[in-house]
Amino acid sequence: MRCLCFVLILFRGCFGMGLWETIFGPALGDGISIQNMVMNFGYKLTEHEVISETGNILVLHKIRSKRRNFRNGSHTPAVLIQHGLLGASDNWFLRGPEKDLPFLLSDAGYDVWLSNMRGNVYSRRHITLNPDSSSSYWNFGLHEIGYYDLPAIIDYILDKSEQESLFYMGHSIGSTIALILCSLRPEYNKKILLHLALAPIAFVTHKPKMFHKMVFSVFPFVEQSVQSRNIHEVFPRRKYFSRLIEYLCQDGTYFQKLCLMFILNFVGVDYDQFNATLIPNFAKYYPAGTSLCMASNLYQLFTTGIFTAMDFQNKSENLLHYRTEIPPSYNLSNVVHPVTLHYSDGDYLVTKDDIDMLAEKLPNVKDKLKIPYPSFNHLDFMWAINSKKLLYDQLLLLLNKYLEN
Ligand SMILES: *[C@@H]1O[C@H](CO)[C@@H](O)[C@H](O)[C@H]1NC(C)=O
Ligand SMILES: *[C@@H]1O[C@H](CO)[C@@H](O)[C@H](O)[C@H]1NC(C)=O
Ligand SMILES: *[C@@H]1O[C@H](CO)[C@@H](O)[C@H](O)[C@H]1NC(C)=O
Ligand SMILES: *[C@@H]1O[C@H](CO)[C@@H](O)[C@H](O)[C@H]1NC(C)=O
């Protein structure tokens, strides 16, 4: 009985339904101050707003370098970290200075910027549209973020830091949007010194795992039922949803195993690198919300295997978004900035075959680097217990190597 309740609540909670809102209260929003969290670790964080061409208000977080690193008389380039699906900038700060990437980069002398994709808890604003009532606000997928938002963000950072180019680190779809940007607006290639692509999603060539097959098979039904209720936002950050997970998945509960099983079957089974004690904390910050459109976009990427813009399955809607009736496919010959591809054998969402295919299409791949830990999964790029030793140390080395040349 409790189990059934859990599943039902989870299901309802995921789609921001009216009932859920009434019973369980407001979105988290500013409830947890990211400034305080970072300050408690001894770092200073500033918040910046960027308005994209489409009127979306996007929030960036910046951590200044702790010690200034100079390169031939000038400051080192900034590093931009872009979160993946359903993430937010604060996901990268949850474990502290010894473990988390932004702190390690700051200690090494880099100014670190973290961006938030439109529609998430920080970037859920627009100069004219109201996300609470306007369905147009939610009418976006990866294409819009890559084409309109990311260039505005990059230009803002370059302007503020008085630099010509920056280092780009994208996790999952965070990397995808940079590929989209540079294929459509090749002038942005020169603004990316080096793109460290952490499990980038582009061509999905691998066969889906059993659990993914299940999710994909119910997706069209769920999509339709959500759409018919006029809901356009999915998996928003909710205070009481996270409380529930906190309660159910804390140490010493039976449900913790269930939580783990659910998460790990989706991203890759790696019990050893996942600190289950932290699930309640993670659940406060993840998921952070996106559009139903984005979910459909990913469903299409994963089920068709082609790297194209999302098909709205409506010619006039496609025309509106892309000025063509057929969604554009992304010409990766245009993506000439240097890229290092990071992947793992334990990742269920992005496999070696997917990376090989991407590497074949990208003209300037500097390196394909496998994580030296077989069961490292999609989420481990952010939260593995040994993420520093297994990945971040190498990222820092790559940046250093790049600066020396
Ligand atoms: C700085 O760069 C210039 C031109 O790229 C080079 O000639 C010079 O030796 C460099 N200086 C140092 C201190 O590395
Ligand atoms: C897991 O997280 C808890 C709470 O922060 C921490 O005390 C513990 O050391 C972590 N475990 C490992 C193996 O890092
Ligand atoms: C297709 O999109 C247009 C423009 O958004 C909309 O007016 C129309 O109702 C849609 N047609 C169908 C069949 O959904
Ligand atoms: C992709 O871009 C390259 C270089 O810009 C060009 O030569 C090629 O014809 C394009 N391919 C397609 C299919 O448009």
Strand and helix map with partners:
Elements (H helix, E strand, L loop, with lengths): L1 H13 L3 H7 L9 H7 L4 E7 L4 E8 L6 E2 L2 E2 L3 E4 L18 H7 L4 E4 L9 E2 L15 H20 L4 E6 L1 H12 L7 E7 L11 H19 L4 E2 L4 H11 L4 H14 L11 H7 L4 E2 H13 L10 H8 L16 E5 L8 H10 L3 E6 L9 H4 L3 H18 L1
Parallel strand pairs: 5-6, 5-8, 8-9, 9-12, 12-13
Antiparallel strand pairs: 1-2, 2-6, 2-7, 3-4, 10-11
Pick out its properties.
405 residues, binds 2-acetamido-2-deoxy-beta-D-glucopyranose, globular, single chain, two-stranded antiparallel sheet, 9-stranded mixed beta sheet, alpha/beta, 15 helices, Rossmann fold
Domain count: the total is 1
Strand content: 5-15%
Described by the principal axes of the CA atoms, the overall outline is globular
CATH topology: Rossmann fold
By secondary-structure content and strand pairing, the structural class works out as: alpha/beta
What series of H and E elements makes up the topology? HHHEEEEEHEEHEHEHEHHHEHHEHEHH
* Rg calculated over all Cα atoms: 20 Å
Give the CATH H-level superfamily: Alpha/Beta hydrolase fold, catalytic domain
* Highest CATH level, the class: Alpha Beta
- Number of extended strands: 13
User: Residue ranges: pLDDT <50 for 5 or more in a row?
Assistant: 1-5, 13-17, 19-26
Range of helix content: 40-55%
Mean pLDDT reading: 88
Q: Note the main sheet.
A: 9 strands, mixed
Cα distance spanning the termini:
62 Å
Ligands in the structure? 2-acetamido-2-deoxy-beta-D-glucopyranose
Number of helices: 15
CATH architecture, by name, is 3-Layer(aba) Sandwich
